[in-house]
Amino acid sequence: MTRVPVASSLPDFPWDSLADVKASARSHPDGIVDLSVGTPVDAVAPVIQEALASVAAVPGYPTTAGTVELREAAAEALARRFSLTVRPGAVLPVIGTKELIAWLPRLLGFGADDLVVIPELAYPTYEVGARLAGARVQRADGLNRLGPENAGLVYVNSPSNPTGKVLGVEHMRKVVEWARERGAIVASDECYLGLSWDAEPVSVLDDRVSGGDHTGLLAIHSLSKTSNLASYRAGFVTGDPALVSELLEVRKHAGLMVPFPIQAAMTAALTHDEHEIAQRERYRARRDVLLPAVKSAGFTVTDSEAGLYLWATRGERGRDTLAWLAERGILAAPGDFYGPRGDDHIRIALTATDERIAAAAARLTN
Ligand SMILES: Cc1ncc(COP(=O)(O)O)c(C=O)c1O
C-alpha cells in the first residue's frame, strides 16, 4: 500500500496567494483596511460570555447531541426568527459549520460513485468536503444543466457567499423538487439567513419550499456571523430527523462534539435576540457607508442583496482590482477563490470596525 496524503487531493489553501497584495496594503501610511476574510470584529455579547463562564468549572464530557436546552433554544430561535418548525430532537450542534461542511459528504456515506453539486460561485469548503469523501464535484446553479446526471448531494447557499445573491422561494422549491425526484439530499447553507438588506431570503425548511416535509433536507446554521461567535466555533444542522440522527450516530463515534461551555454560550445566543438585532444593524450601517463609496470609485456591484459581502467588479481581472485596492491600503478577496466564473470580480467584506470602514470609504472616494 502506498500512502496518499489527503492534502494532495485538496486545492491549494487560497489565502496564501494574497501575501503580496497584503504586504502592499499594509504599507499604507494610515494602515491596512482588511476586508478580505469575513471575520467578526465586534465583541461577543455579555449575555453569551456570561453563559460560557457560568459552566467553565464543569469537567465532564459533553454529549454529541447537545443539551436539551440547546436543542430547544435552537428550535425556538428558528421559529421566532424565521417562522420555521423543527423538533428539538432534529437539531445537532456542530463545531462551527465549516467542520460540518468539510465532512458532510463523508458522514452521509457519499464516495467515488457520487456527485456533489455546488453553486458556480461557492464557499470553497463545499468542494473540500466532496474531495475528502472522494466524491465528484460539479458546479451548477441551474440543475437542468446537469442533464441526465444524478447527484447525491446538492448544496444551496442563499444568501450567498461570495455574491450576496438571494434565491427566491420558487428557485428553492425547484431545487427541492429536482432533488426529491432523484433521491438526492439538499444541504442548504443558511449562514447569512439573518443578514438581509434588499431581499427576503428563505430557508429550505420553510413550508413554501419544503411543502412542510423535511425529508432529504438539511439546513446548516452558523452562529459565527449573526452572533459574532466565530471564535467559539458554534453552529448546528437541522432538518430531516432521520438524516440528523444518522449524522449524530457517526459523530458520536468520531468524537465530533461541541465543548460544553460553548453549548451553554450557544444556548444563550439562541435564546436572546437583542445582540443579534444590534449586530445586524451594525452591518447594515457599514454597508450603507461602503456600498456608495465602492460604486463612486467606478465599481459595478453585482447581487449583494444580503449577507456580509459586496461582490464587485471594475470590468477587469479581479486580481488586477485587488492590486488597485491594495495601493489604497484596502485588502479584498479575489473572486477566483470562489470559482472560475468569479475571475472578474472581487469580494469586499463588511466585517471591519466602523472606523476602518469609514477609512476605506474615504480612500475610495478621494
Ligand atoms: C457560506 C458559509 N458557510 C459556512 C461558513 C463557516 O462558518 P463557521 O464555520 O464559522 O460556522 C462560512 C464562513 O465564512 C460561510 O461563508
TrEMBL record:
GO terms for molecular function: pyridoxal phosphate binding; succinyldiaminopimelate transaminase activity. Pfam families: Aminotran_1_2. Residues 32-364 form the Aminotransferase class I/classII large domain. SUPFAM superfamilies: PLP-dependent transferases. Its cofactor is pyridoxal 5'-phosphate. Keywords: Aminotransferase, Transferase. This is Succinyldiaminopimelate transaminase. It comes from Rhodococcus rhodnii. The lineage of its organism: Bacteria, Bacillati, Actinomycetota, Actinomycetes, Mycobacteriales. The gene is dapC.
